[in-house]
């Protein structure tokens, strides 16, 4: 088995590179060995959600006003930074995705690299948005408090709101999502006026050191619906193996859904995964049916 270099020192003079690997035996993970949420919260300044031993904190870019295709994008539709922590064999793995303006990319990337957190992808998710928004995926291994401090230091170089959310929850939409969820065949939940749906894959996803990466850490297909005058704007990403990519593209295009990006999010996962982002603004039930047809071309847990 293998593991990543623990955080605490530099990982060479690298910028966007493959993970450094060191041979080392691993031990079985205890079911109750979950990250210390209170310590992480104290550093980040915001609470998250625990799910089967994974602690995930969302940091929506509520400071940004982004518009695409005539739609004012809600943070919960496509502007949600997040970090997820999971323990194994006395170490903690952190993975996540940061929403950044173009001017924030290199300051944040440099600070993460200095702190031993490695970059696994930098790319777009949507098209023709104003202002331009990019997404940075990262992976790190080590002491969870040091990981949290590294992320806090890096994010301080961006405009990402780090303290407690502003008082008062975002207004819920008045949309009845029942028909949409029936057409999609999957239940979701509304957050910040957006219906969010996650569909995990059936097979186990693992890193090179044998750590499982569950859907809650970013290996589930994500589909979001935001109400618009036309019905709904949709975006998210399909999580696919190589053989599934083009069948999914064909189903999405049949439904009038644009493909906005195709790329990796991780560096050493098994099986190898590809992430495809999409966009449409149309009748919500029609779009849900197209998304369902695309999901059926994947090994998703439907």
Number of domains: 2
Q: Taking all residues together, what is the mean pLDDT? A: 90
Judging from the principal axes of the Cα atoms, what is the shape? globular
Q: Which sequence of SSEs, written as H and E, runs from N to C? A: EEHEEEEHEEHEEHHEEEEHEEH
Largest sheet: 6 strands, antiparallel
Can you walk through the features of this model?
The chain has 302 residues and is an alpha+beta fold. The protein has two domains: 29-155, no CATH class; 178-295, no CATH class. It has seven helices and 16 strands. The protein has a six-stranded antiparallel β-sheet with strand order 3-4-7-8-10-9. A six-stranded antiparallel β-sheet has the order 11-12-13-14-16-15. A two-stranded antiparallel sheet has the order 1-2. The protein is globular, with a radius of gyration of 19 Å. The model is unreliable at 1-6 and 8-31 (pLDDT under 50).
Features:
302 residues, alpha+beta, six-stranded antiparallel beta sheet, disordered N terminus
Tell me the layout of helices and strands.
Elements lengths: L1 E3 L16 E3 L13 H8 L4 E3 L2 E7 L6 E2 L2 E2 L2 H4 L1 E9 L2 E11 L3 H10 L3 E6 L9 E10 L1 H12 L22 H7 L4 E3 L2 E6 L21 E8 L2 E10 L4 H10 L3 E6 L10 E9 L1 H12 L7
Helix pairs in contact: 1-4, 3-4, 5-7, 6-7
Quick synopsis:
The chain is 21% helix and 32% strand.
